[in-house]
Design a protein that fits this description.
85% of the residues lie in helices and 0% in strands. The protein has six helices and no strands. 3% of the residues are buried.
């Protein structure tokens, strides 16, 4: 082959490498953009789901009789969403945070009382210490028997 042919082959080869590099660069950029877009779509979907949940709770609150268990439950859930969006520092050190926490605790207590009045103690689960103390104080015998047993 002549030098001219070699030169042409070399130029075509170099040009091909440049094209491959450009295509690879474009592909990498496309994949990066695609990944960013997917992350944004996930964020929008999560926000949409959260908004639907809040709207459903607000609708439940609006349709419920004031003071009813359903109204309390809807307001409690809405408050919990707000609490979950605040930092521990905001909850402890701001008037709004403290008010929200105390209001939410009061709502929970009202829900608990409402459920207990119908014999449903599911909101009291975990209050075992209080239940045991209450049972002992109401019977009186258990404590007396224990005292005698350990005194002897």
């Amino acid at each position: 082959m002549s030098d001219t042919n070699n030169k042409i082959i070399l130029e075509v080869g170099l040009k091909g490498k440049e094209n491959v590099a450009e295509v690879q660069k474009a592909y990498d950029s496309y994949m990066h953009t695609l990944s960013e877009t997917a992350a944004q779509v996930r964020q929008v979907n999560a926000a949409h789901t959260e908004s639907k949940k809040e709207l459903k709770l607000q609708d439940e609150l609006a349709r419920s009789v004031a003071g009813s268990y359903n109204a309390l439950s809807a307001q409690y859930s809405l408050n919990r969403i707000q609490i979950n969006q605040m930092s521990a520092d905001e909850l402890k050190n701001t008037e709004a945070g403290q008010k929200l926490v105390s209001e939410t605790a009061a709502i929970r207590e009202e829900m608990k009382k409402s459920q207990e009045s119908t014999g449903n103690n599911s909101l009291s689960v975990g209050s075992y210490t209080d239940s045991i103390k209450n049972a002992i104080s109401q019977t009186g015998l258990f404590g007396t028997e224990l005292y005698r047993k350990f005194k002897a």
